[in-house]
């Protein structure tokens, strides 16, 4: 979102502005300062529940952009570094949401999100916005919407899962998939603009959690296919570099595949997205699919469950390659 200029401001011509080291503050500088003050006071107060890989990045970007941010994480230590940047770290989710205009929930799964929000719902500010940004699937999303409608009908629920992983989140380059009452979502949009590169609105609340499963089923298929193709290439005596050189520059050279090939080549599976959470998403998609046949996703979920059982769950999902190779 482009920052508007100071309201009613006329730029002072360059020849009337002070040069480097000039002592006189121009009209522009004074009103720019005043404008910044107004802008900051108009920013919503944000609470972030869940300071894992993604929630931590969201909170850090909001702090960088001058928002007042309150946070809570089950493991308090994960949020402590952000206190130096101005985060107010609460001991409970209820404590974190008090006074917040926008509450972000970025927790592992549906059960955790529902339990946390049940505990915090009475403490939500009147008329606050709740942006649920984790990948929690269709059933938990629909249940949350109904629960909130019953307990706190004044609160605006925005279903807002994200596309993009840890590094894009750290660089405010995620895409927010939003659904819900956009006409009332100005505060949420300010927050989304600070943590991402764009927001795609998809309709009624719940639509974006459905689209998120579509996106992740594509990502999961891509990852499994890449891991298997790499194993086949190796069996024929090719390296990952050979494989990428053939793909590079053509329509098959998906940037995501390059990132994952680099992980495979370096043997570094530091999680951008935990294999465990990717498996959760595969199961959420299968659960929500109804009569739609997804045989490849079913097989992948079985293989990834075996990989998780073998101890790969806390690594990046690219570790399925290492599981296939062992
Ligand atoms: N990483 C990605 O690429 C990515 C991209 C898009 C969406 N997502 C989704 O975003 C969500 C968060 O992902 P993440 O990568 O940030 O995961 P993460 O780093 O594992 O963080 C998970 C968060 O959930 C909390 N949590 C887990 N179990 C809990 C429990 N029983 N009670 C209270 N808190 C609990 C964790 O607290 P502790 O620190 O105490 O464990 C942490 O704050 C997931 O739904 C994931 O699928 C992830």
Question: What do we call the CATH topology of the largest domain?
Answer: Rossmann fold
Number of domains: 2
| Structural class assignment | alpha/beta
Shape: globular
Q: Class of the largest domain in CATH? A: Alpha Beta
Looking at how many chains there are and whether they match, the oligomeric state comes to single chain
Would you count the extended β strands for me?
A: 9
Description:
By secondary structure, this protein is α/β, with parallel strands linked by helices. It folds into two domains: 41-203, Rossmann fold; 210-325, N-(1-d-carboxylethyl)-l-norvaline Dehydrogenase, domain 2. Helix content is 52%, strand content 11%. It has 14 helices and nine strands. The strands form two sheets. Strands 3-2-1-4-5-6 form a six-stranded parallel β-sheet, with helices on both faces. Helix 5 (110-120) runs parallel beside helix 6 (137-151), helix 9 (207-235) crosses helix 11 and helix 12 (275-288) packs antiparallel against helix 13 (295-312). The protein is globular and about 65 Å long. Mean pLDDT is 91; it is low at 1-30. NADP nicotinamide-adenine-dinucleotide phosphate (NAP) is lined by residues 50-55, 73-75, 78, 106-109, 112, 134-135, 162, 165-166, 272-274, 277. Residues 50-55, 73-75, 78, 106-109, 112, 134-135, 162, 165-166, 272-274, 277 line the site of NADP nicotinamide-adenine-dinucleotide phosphate (NAP).
């Amino acid at each position: 979102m482009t920052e508007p200029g100071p309201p009613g401001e006329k730029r002072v011509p360059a020849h009337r502005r002070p040069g480097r080291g000039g002592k006189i503050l121009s009209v522009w500088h004074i009103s720019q300062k005043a404008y910044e003050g107004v802008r900051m006071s108009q920013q919503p107060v944000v609470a972030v529940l869940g300071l894992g890989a993604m929630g931590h990045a969201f909170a850090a970007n909001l702090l960088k952009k001058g928002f007042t941010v309150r946070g809570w994480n089950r493991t308090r230590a994960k949020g402590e570094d952000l206190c130096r940047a101005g985060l107010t770290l609460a001991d409970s989710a209820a404590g974190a949401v008090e006074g917040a205009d926008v509450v972000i929930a970025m927790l592992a799964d549906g059960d955790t999100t529902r339990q946390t929000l049940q505990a915090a719902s009475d403490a939500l500010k009147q008329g606050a916005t709740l942006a649920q940004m984790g990948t929690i699937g269709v059933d938990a999303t629909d249940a949350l919407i109904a629960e909130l409608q019953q307990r706190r009908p004044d609160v605006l629920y925005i279903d807002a899962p994200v596309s993009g992983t840890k590094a894009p989140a750290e660089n405010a380059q995620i895409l927010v998939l939003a659904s819900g009452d956009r006409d009332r979502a100005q505060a949420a949009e300010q927050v989304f603009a600070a943590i991402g590169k764009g927001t795609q609105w998809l309709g009624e609340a719940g639509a974006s959690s459905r689209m998120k499963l579509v996106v992740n089923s594509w990502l999961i298929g891509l990852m499994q296919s890449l891991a298997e193709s790499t194993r086949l290439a190796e069996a024929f005596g090719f390296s990952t570099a050979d494989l990428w050189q053939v793909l590079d520059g053509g329509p098959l050279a998906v940037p995501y595949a390059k990132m994952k090939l680099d992980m495979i080549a370096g043997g570094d599976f530091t999680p951008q997205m935990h294999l465990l959470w990717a498996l959760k998403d595969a199961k959420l998609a299968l659960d929500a699919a109804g009569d739609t046949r997804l045989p490849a996703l079913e097989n992948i979920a079985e293989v990834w469950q075996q990989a998780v059982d073998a101890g790969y769950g806390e690594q990046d999902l690219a570790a399925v390659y290492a599981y296939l190779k062992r």
